[in-house]
Specification:
single chain; alpha+beta; about 30% helix
Length: about 325
């Protein structure tokens, strides 16, 4: 059984798991207040500076099956999904049966602040999605390392219990095109993303670096993160390179956008009035998003600007989550 971590706002309250035998054969998992654990922290900017910057490749060779399924590393009948749920519950959970059935407990999704008392309604999200990991370097890993990544309980931020809706919204996107709907979690999200990439020696692309660097600068000390131990990585036994297609050898260049005029750092606006003062039609994350709203008369009068960097920094202003912030 792993240790539980309760997060209340920006404060982490670390709690040891206590096991109490029940006459029914079930086990009650409660939480006892303990002194905060002392972590070695490192500025996210320092870790970010150590990440390799290279274009994403091997997108067409990705297969979810390469990463395997949830495992039960410590043999206590609770697989990785159940372990994360146990760790992140903010109230006691009862574990029963040989399949680690959970009852009781309550959870809050860091991404959108949704709450639940039904663990089945929450997903376990890989902070850095499996496909993102693959195109950032995991394509060269052994099968053993891929499965270890998918079940990483060695770093508390690798896996997180979140609402199914927010997880589906994120899908396999990186911070350049998706940020949590709850802006209060933005700094922690960015720093933890960097922490996971650092732990697994994964690369970042140019656009991803621009967004992360800008966010880290804006967050300041709020982007400090627990320094992870570096994961053990074995080279690939899948010969993924033989599957590479021509488009992987010629990555899509960064889109031309207003970000170029701002030195590639994008802009962070306080509200839609401020954003529209500079970009009258609003900011779109991609040309696909532009097409979704281009038919309206207002869109014709106020052309949209495609700028994934600025959009990512202002995604909280995209109230209807259509990929366009502050359209008229």
């Amino acid at each position: 059984m792993i240790r539980g971590v309760i997060r209340l706002g920006a404060v982490a309250v670390v709690c040891a798991v206590s096991l109490v035998a029940m006459s029914s054969g079930a086990t009650a998992v409660g939480f006892e207040s303990q002194p905060p654990r002392i972590h070695s922290t490192q500025a996210a900017a320092t870790m970010l500076s150590q990440l390799r910057v290279t274009p994403e490749t091997h997108a067409t060779t990705y297969n979810r099956d390469y990463f395997g399924s949830w495992n039960d590393a410590d043999g206590d009948s609770c697989n990785t999904r159940k372990e994360v749920l146990l760790a992140e519950s903010t109230s006691p959970v009862t574990v029963s049966g040989s399949r680690c059935t959970l009852s009781g407990g309550s959870w809050t999704s860091s991404y959108d602040s949704a709450t639940t008392t039904s663990p089945a309604s929450f997903d376990i999200d890989h902070m850095v999605p499996l496909k993102e990991a693959w195109i950032s370097g995991a394509y060269g890993w052994s099968s053993k390392t891929l499965r270890a990544y998918a079940n990483d309980l060695g770093y508390e931020y690798s896996l997180v219990a979140v609402s199914a809706r927010s997880n589906r919204s994120k899908n396999d996107q990186d911070p350049a095109t998706w940020m949590p709907p709850d802006p209060a979690f933005a700094c922690q999200y960015v720093s933890r993303w960097i922490g996971v990439k650092y732990r697994w020696s994964l690369a970042i692309d140019e656009l991803e670096k621009l967004v992360l660097a800008n966010a880290v600068q804006s967050c300041g000390a709020g982007a400090d993160v627990t320094e992870p131990a570096l994961a053990s990585i074995e080279s690939g036994d899948m010969d993924a390179q033989t599957k590479t297609r021509s488009e992987d050898l010629n990555p899509t260049p960064l889109p031309n956008s207003a970000a170029t005029a701002n030195g590639g750092l994008g802009e962070n606006f306080a509200n839609c009035d401020a954003l529209q003062a500079r970009y009258p039609g609003g900011i779109a994350s991609s040309t696909t998003s532009v097409n979704l709203v281009s038919g309206s008369p207002r869109a014709t009068r106020y052309p949209l600007t495609v700028d994934p960097v600025t959009y990512a920094l202002n995604a909280r202003l995209d109230r209807d989550k259509d990929g366009v912030a502050c359209e008229r």
